[in-house]
Amino acid sequence: MYTTSMPSSTALTSPFPSKTTKVLKIGLLMPRYNADVAKESGFDRAAGAIPIAVDAIRKDHLLDDYNFTFVLKLSECDEKLSAGYSVELITIDKVDVLIGPTCTASAITVGILTAFYNTPTYLWGLVASHQLADTNVYSTTTRMTSDAAELAKAFLAFMAEFNFDRFALLYVLTGQQKCRFIGDDLKAVIENTSLSDVSMTFTRQMESSSADVVRKTMHIAAQKARIIALCFANDVDRRNFFLTINDMGLNTDEYLYITLDTRGFGLGQRAVPRTRNLTDATGTVPFYIDQSDNPDGRDQDAMNGARLSISIDFDPTTSTGDVAEFNKAVIDRVQGWPFYCTECNSTFVAATYSRYLHDAMYLYALSLNKTIANNPNNYRDGRLIALQSNVTFQGASGEVIFNKDRQRVAVFLVMGLNVANSITYYEEGSGARIWETRGGKPPLAVPICGFERKGCPEELIKTPLVIAAVSTGGAFALITVIIIVYIFWSKKKEEERLNLQWQIAYYDLVKNLPKKAGSESSRSFQSGAVSVSTKLTIETQSEFFALYYLGAEPVVASKHHTRTKLDQNDHRDMRKLLSLDHSNVNKFLGLCSDSKECMYMSIWKYCSRGSLQDVFSKESITMDSFFMFSLIRDILQGLSYIHHSFLEYHGNLTSDNCLVNDRWQVKLSDYGLERLRKSDKLPAKKLLWKAPELLRDDSVYGSSAGDVYSFAIVCSEIMSRKPAYDLACRPESEEEIVYMVKRGGRTLCRPAIANLTNFNPAFIHLVRDCWSENVKERPTVEQIMKLMKSVVPNSNANLMDHVFRMMEGYADSLEQEVQARVKELESEKKKSDLLLYRMMPKQIAEKLKMSSSVEPETFESVTVFFSDVVQFTTLASRCSPLQVVDLLNRLYTNFDQIIDCHDVYKVETIGDGYLCVSGLPHRNGNRHITEIADMSLAFIASLQTFRIPHIPSETVQIRVGMHTGSVVAGVVGLTMPRYCLFGDTVNTASRMESNSKPNKIHMSVEAHLAVQQFPGYTTESRGDVIIKGKGVMETFWLIEKQNGLNVANQTQNDELKTAVTTTGMFRAMFNITH
């Protein structure tokens, strides 16, 4: 930014100073570093016109009481910068007037803003859109150049003058988009009913002026028109075009090329230092002269190509003064006041529109002078000042005349090359001179024989020789005719037969097969330890596609909502489509034209895994980098095949159209059928993959460079496993994303891939190159494939082999995990079984585990044991409840340890009571008495060393009773089931215990008799005892077992000391502690 003020001491300040000098602040919006517009309106080449205009203002005594201050912003023809800087100039810098910007898109935005702030605005440069002519919207804006609509009217007037009723429009679009606005205004003027006799039969935006692009475009244009309207943003593109025209041999009298421009150069171009000696009165040299540092030596070829072309442009001859002197002054004055740009290059050539900047500054002084003459306070009223701009004056750009809408009245000239190949100007009424290089005859808008040369009948050569030949060779001719007719008939029949191959009747398409045939197909994919199974039903329909069965095979039908009638060329393309066959291109099966749902349906082979979007939506699928690169490689191979086929481009590449079959192979679908697809109205979501240059030009369906852009968007989806642009995480809608991509600018709207650390950075840079805004910077598919080989190791490896290796690894890890889980299960089962065996007899527990019923069972001979703690109530009164629990836990843990050494089943404990039995459920013959007897002696012996922790002086004594007899045993209850004993034997054993004495083993006669069968046991008769419920019974004491335990055997007690003091399973499981 430059902020400069005019020095008050110089003569330029005011040659007629007044007592009060006011300062006007002028805001300037100009480009400097934008190469597309620098030569047209760049600061270094144009700003010098400002001090020249100030000189003129002082000379004509305009605004004598005012000085000028200038504030410069380098907006670079960028819409965002222009809008932001204009607001900053108005609100912060408080400028009184705004001059610029110099490009149409920026001018449209700024014009609306200045209308809001009521700031006078003067436009110059490449501002050609007729939209700026609306004074209701752009109420404070005055434009120094005429708009493209006036150029369009001049062009159509020329067409009407020579009865040309049709033409084609071709243009090369660059960043400043001048030609696009010219084309838009031309279309708008043609739609006017008063000029409806002229039609535009073909229009094409060429991505560049390369020979290949021009050849392809002209091959099509030549089939539509002979009058070719052209627009170029620079002279290099214009020269390249006519070089190609010369090489193609299209520089004939049959064609007329009309160049449309608003720079005032006509067939000339701005001269560089080394060609200034060739300039004419306008300071230009012919455009066909190569002014580059390394000329190609083809100036003559370029001139031959343009020999029959004309130009319609602003009249350059209206400029006043010495043009060369003015241009030199512009370059010199930029280094002085008010800019002092010492780094500006003095060898530059003045900008094309520098004269218009001079006139914009001078017009502002004129308008303001008239405004303040009525009221000095209105010097900032933009609308009032704009109304005063309807003036006429002689400016640097010629005579400046404005109409009632404040639009400059332009004078257009028709220019061409005369017979001497010199540039000449044609005035109204000089039609004969225009065509003198064509023999005085204008070309025909439509050739006599038509564009395809089929309108002229063949002439019959009637000579005696022919008549004689026909008469003598009549038979041969007849045979020849028959053969020819037969050949044509056979060819027609063959075409009909081939057409039947791609024609599919709607009757043959079935939505649902019978159930027995299977209306579903299933597929599965193994990812880690997770198995995903998905069923695809052939019943889905949408606005754009439907699923059917053709025969027994599922197919996909793409719907085309158009009423376009297919011709023979379309039929030929269908046959070619049917012949396309590649492992990465989905098979086209045919076209259905009698559908009840839409006009046409294209039928494609069905891929079981769906599209890439379907694959990405399944989070269970594991994809490593090799897997993703394999998918990308398949897409590239499919694109390469299509680009080398007759199609030349896909034109509709999205992740929806990248289908995946059961072998994880990507197949590109929905290609070709351009005539049918052009009429389809696509929602914004379908346009997220469309290249920006295709979004801007609806007439172009696709290109190979556009496919590369779409490929980059699909790559971003594969790399991030998220939909295009990840709209769920962005504030913009689909329509807003499409608008931002179409608009372009410095900050491009593209998917975010910067944080993908699992990809090679070189590949990420490759993807960015593929979606470059500049079409020329995008690599071709072949270049991408070569770079992929260097970026991705083993890029030719087979994906299925990789998938099988992944699945083998998953199977191995799964097997190990299963084995580990089985071991854990077995461990837990052992714990649960051990716990269950502690609660139930093993035989009973096994039956319960097998869900078998446990029937009550009678046992003829068992021995039942009862015991309780002597004076337990007294001991309990001296203990807290927790101490009581701890006492019993320690005592019964010791007893449980002893039971484990005998064939005894512990039935239950009730308080201080202990109930055991031997002989059930496992029958052990008569040994049940010895098991109970040995256990009882061991209980008594263990008490010799048992101590109560909190009452160490006290000892514990128990009473023991046993009886031998029959019992019934069974499981009782469902919740907390118990294995219980029933019978008189249990009662008698209980009476033996209750009538026993401390540390004594009391036994009935039946028990006594049973134990006597085994040697080594000593018993002693107690005599007759009155037993409650039994009467008088003789009972016995079990004293000892020889060579074993007795009730006071200390030695045996020491041997069992370790066993009975060890914490038992019961204690471990329930963790009962003091």
Q: Explain this structure to me?
A:
By secondary structure, the protein is of the alpha/beta class. It has 4 domains: 2-146 and 322-407, Response regulator (Rossmann fold, 3-Layer(aba) Sandwich); 148-320 and 413-438, 3-Layer(aba) Sandwich (Rossmann fold); 508-797, Transferase(Phosphotransferase) domain 1 (Transferase(Phosphotransferase), domain 1, Orthogonal Bundle); 853-1070, Alpha-Beta Plaits, CATH 3.30.70.1230. 37% of the residues lie in helices and 19% in strands. The strands form 8 sheets. Strands 27, 28, 29, 30, 31, 32, 33 and 34 form an 8-stranded mixed beta sheet that branches. The protein has a 7-stranded mixed beta sheet with strand order 8-7-9-10-13-16-17, with helices on both faces. It is found in: Cell membrane.
List keywords for this structure.
cell membrane, 1074 residues, Transferase(Phosphotransferase), domain 1, seven-stranded mixed beta sheet, alpha/beta, Rossmann fold, GTP-binding, guanylate cyclase activity, eight-stranded mixed beta sheet
